[in-house]
Amino acid sequence: xxxxxxxxxxxxxxxxxxxxxxxQTGLLEAARYxxxxxxxxxxxxxxxxxxxxxxxxxxxxxxxxxxxSKSGASSEQEASVSKRICDNIDDTLNRCRQLxxx
Length: 102
Description:
By secondary structure, the chain is of the alpha+beta class. Helix content is 68%, strand content 16%.
């Protein structure tokens, strides 16, 4: 499975993500969804700072995923998707921290 670099834009910042070609559509949809969730949180004015906004968005999305799983998603599939999402969030937060430091 060959991975290609895909550029996603979240809160007006571009991120390069390695992704198999057959998963690019899903990645882009997920990035758009995350961007919208983060914009909603930022626009509420209650949360300040990219890292805090990202964590709140991750919590909200994790809650949505958990609620959706109660209505029938397989637990193995849920665990796999949840792990991928958490790994991507961790990677993004680490890159944000490195950009802030550098």
